[in-house]
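Hi U.,

Before I forget, here's the chain from the pilot set. I'm dumping it here mostly so it's searchable later in email.
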Amino acid sequence: MNILATILLAASVNIPDDPAIRQLVSTGGPQAERTLVAALPKADDTRAIAIIKALGDLGSSEPVRESARRLVNNATGDMKDVCLYALGRTTSRRAARFLRSRISDEAYATAYLRHGESLVEIGRKTEPAEVALDLLRAKSPATRCGAVALLASVRGYSAQPTLLVMLDDPDRSVREQVVRQLARMPSAVGLIAAAGVAKGQRRVHLLDAVGRRADPAHAALMIECLRDNDEAIRQVALSALRDISGTQIDAEIAKALASPVSQAAALDLLAQRRARSQVAAVMPLINNPAISKQAFTALGALAGPSEVEQLIALASKNEKVRDDATKAIAAAAPRIADNASCVAALVKVPSWGLALLPAFGGKAALDAVVAAMKRNDRDAAVRALADWRDESALEPLVALCRDASEEKLRVLAARGAIRIVQQAGITKDEKTVWLQKIAEASPRAQEKQQAEAALEQLKSGKKKK
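Structure:
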């Protein structure tokens, strides 16, 4: 006896088990549908729910009459849900008419939307578009969102006039869905034209749809939007320009630095795009009090060795901008690590320059800090060494733990060394050796216990909470 015959035999006794129903769904075809339909009149409500669900899974038109009958007779709960599911999954015109006549009920509207989507699955376009148009005024924003997506999928560019009207929908999620679908259209010509005459939130949505395309051809429009008086428009432009790559785009954005309205946005963009080729355009803006903080922040992302040296010189002369300048230097430092000229410039201003050397790292910076410990700026040098970012500082720190004459410096060295060991990318054995050395050289019981606790943690493999 073949598999289908076995299933049919199970069906002849009212399909008593779910595996038989699942197997029929898996097998599919007209014979499986007829078997399920034949079993339906004999089924109790629990089994009927399973059978109608199975027919819905098959996309069968067979349960339309029975589902409609049960719904008209006020089916509730699971029975109502499964009947609507089956009607939604079928491609029957009769089911469509039945659901459409009741779309004021949100459950029927959802099933009608599912019906339209089922039609798309079999390659139909006209009927799904009709379904979508019927549902654009549904009560539920979720259903309207689905209708917008359905209409766009079957009508493509020709759906654009209707979608533009839906930009006035009162619900934000629907407007967002419209923007998403407009952004996928094959051309933005109509959107740009509409944006040219639109006002308020409608204009924001239209420009957002254009911007989401991330098309370099629209970069000039988005850069112009950076100068707009509407903050929402400027945010749309910012979002769009982040996603359009190319050094030519960087150069165009830099032109927006000339306008006070767009300076802040242009600085943020250049920093986010890491547009280092435009650093010369950014540098003069640190002298503009209205925008200097943003300019310093941008330089943290863009400055190279030459600009960093200029920032060091500026911070040395002008205490008012020193804090912003040093933050920019520290942010730029990892890109130009171990730059000898920058290190030399910082060593000349030990009062605050030494604190920046850990951000640069490398041999030149480390040698400069070690040398500074022999001069009057010993405290600042030890603090810089304790803040080092890799294991290259461990040897001089352990030596300080052991040999420094001032206890506070030994304490700083011990704590810095323990931190470095815990964060360093070295082997477990190497960490063990260093922690043992630190414990032996620690000036006080507290640091010795801290080193021993780190050793225990290393052995157990547990992370410190």
